[in-house]
């Protein structure tokens, strides 16, 4: 059933996913498996709204039958979201200006207890004083951190379009801005484990070969680069999304990181800049000659690395590769393993009860192993 969990099946399902993962890359070494909580693990949830007479319900669509399914509870979501859902719907149904033409409701929550709700309408809300007052009352009554109203080309924030996640990794606190309608780690408990593993790989590299500089591609909101910065002399991180770059700058300041610079560039562009084949105005304040890059960190989209970036890997002594797609990871490793050996690997179950599995691989240049 949609949005449901099956804790009694979880261990077997994870074992099956891990077995498939191992068959993709037989050279994996020291594979560590990081489990998820079997319920209340998702920090994000999105539901369409179905209106029928005086009743309104959250719905999802069955992918196989295309039929709509009413969602009365969602134990996949964090407990804060799951418990809020019926209270929110009951409150909305009592206020016509909030209910009429409500199309979708999105939830975004944090382990630290903050929660943001987005109400999406098929009507104008921008100059609707009644809607605005009702939305403010709803936010206060339910104790929401923020509430957003959206309609076509309209967005009203009460008061913000983000919340802050407070993670603890290896006993150290980290603060991350989570922006509505932007990518954030969906399973915060597993995200903490991913950060801890990446930090351990960074320390392992330092223990073996000494401390140097790090370059990260696809850095998003600075999730990894901020947590890894203490293990490197200097860190240069790149990201193509303007929203994510803004969020990364916010997070750098919140975490008081002094040795990290983020630039808005695609992975292919930074590859060209480092090879000296193209100059970029966005790099005018970054002197690449002042960096001693020994470690490359990549966390690419599901499509994996592009050809230019894949060839760029050969220039680095150490590589930490985080993947959200085992198939493209296996493809990329065919090329990378010509110059590097896998010395550690891990899988992270961000998405229980699905076929998706995140992975981490730490590689060292062959002549150094």
Word description of this protein:
The chain is α/β, with parallel strands linked by helices and 369 residues long. It folds into two domains: 7-39 and 187-368, Rossmann fold, CATH 3.40.50.150; 44-164, OB fold (Dihydrolipoamide Acetyltransferase, E2P) (Beta Barrel), CATH 2.40.50. 32% of the residues lie in helices and 30% in strands. It has helices at residues 7-24, 79-93, 96-99, 129-142, 188-209, 223-228, 242-254, 267-275, 307-312, 326-336, and strands spanning 31-34, 44-52, 55-61, 68-71, 102-109, 115-121, 146-151, 154-158, 162-169, 172-179, 213-217, 235-239, 260-264, 293-298, 318-323, 340-348, 358-365. The strands form three sheets. An eight-stranded mixed beta sheet has the order 1-16-17-15-14-11-12-13, sandwiched between helices. It has a seven-stranded mixed beta sheet with strand order 4-3-2-5-6-7-8, covered by helices on one side. Strands 9-10 form a two-stranded antiparallel ribbon. Strand 7 and strand 8 (154-158) form a beta hairpin.
Low-pLDDT windows of residues: none
Count of individual domains: 2
The number of distinct helices, counting runs of at least 4 residues, comes to 10
Largest sheet: 8 strands, mixed
Task: Report how far the terminal alpha carbons are from each other.
Answer: 49 Å
- Can you say what the CATH homologous superfamily of the largest domain is? Vaccinia Virus protein VP39
* Rough outline: globular
CATH topology of the largest domain: Rossmann fold
Count of β-strands: 17
Percentage of residues in strands: 25-35%
Query: Which structural class is indicated by helix and strand composition?
Result: alpha/beta
* H-E order: HEEEEHHEEHEEEEHEHEHEHEHEHEE
CATH architectural grouping of the largest domain: 3-Layer(aba) Sandwich
Query: How are the strands of the biggest sheet laid out side by side?
Result: 1-16-17-15-14-11-12-13
Mean pLDDT: 94
Helix content: 25-40%
Radius of gyration: 22 Å
């Amino acid at each position: 059933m949609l949005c449901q969990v099956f804790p009694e099946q979880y261990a077997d399902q994870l074992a099956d996913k891990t077995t498939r993962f191992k068959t993709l890359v037989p050279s994996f070494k020291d594979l560590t498996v990081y489990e998820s909580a079997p319920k209340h693990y998702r920090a994000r949830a999105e539901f369409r709204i179905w209106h029928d007479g005086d009743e309104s319900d959250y719905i999802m669509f069955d992918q196989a039958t295309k039929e709509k399914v009413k969602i009365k509870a969602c134990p996949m979501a964090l407990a804060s979201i799951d418990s809020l859902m019926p209270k929110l719907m009951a409150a909305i149904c009592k206020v016509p200006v909030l209910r009429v033409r409500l199309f979708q409701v999105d939830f975004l929550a944090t382990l630290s207890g903050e929660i943001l709700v987005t109400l999406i309408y098929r009507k104008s809300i921008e100059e609707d004083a009644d809607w605005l007052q009702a939305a403010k009352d709803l936010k206060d009554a339910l104790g929401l951190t923020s509430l957003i109203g959206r309609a076509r080309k309209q967005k009203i924030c009460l008061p913000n379009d983000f919340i802050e996640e407070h993670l603890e990794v290896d006993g150290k606190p980290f603060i991350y801005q989570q922006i509505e309608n932007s990518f954030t780690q969906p399973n915060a408990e597993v995200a903490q484990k991913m950060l801890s593993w990446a930090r351990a790989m960074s320390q392992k590299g330092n223990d073996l070969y000494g401390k140097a500089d790090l370059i990260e591609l696809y850095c998003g909101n600075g999730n990894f680069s901020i947590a890894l910065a203490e293990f490197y002399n200097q860190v240069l991180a790149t990201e193509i999304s303007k929203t994510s770059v803004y969020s990364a700058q916010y997070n750098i300041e919140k975490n008081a990181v002094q040795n990290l610079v983020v630039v808005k560039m695609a992975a292919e562009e930074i590859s060209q800049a480092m090879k000296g084949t193209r100059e970029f105005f966005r790099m005018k304040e970054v002197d690449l000659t002042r960096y001693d890059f020994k470690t490359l960190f990549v966390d690419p989209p599901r499509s994996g690395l592009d050809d230019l970036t894949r060839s760029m890997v050969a220039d680095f002594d150490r590589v930490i590769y985080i993947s959200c797609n085992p198939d493209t990871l296996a493809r990329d490793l065919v090329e990378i393993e010509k110059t590097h050996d896998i010395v550690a690997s891990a899988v992270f179950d961000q998405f229980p009860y699905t076929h998706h599995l995140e992975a981490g691989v730490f590689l060292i240049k062959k002549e150094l192993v």
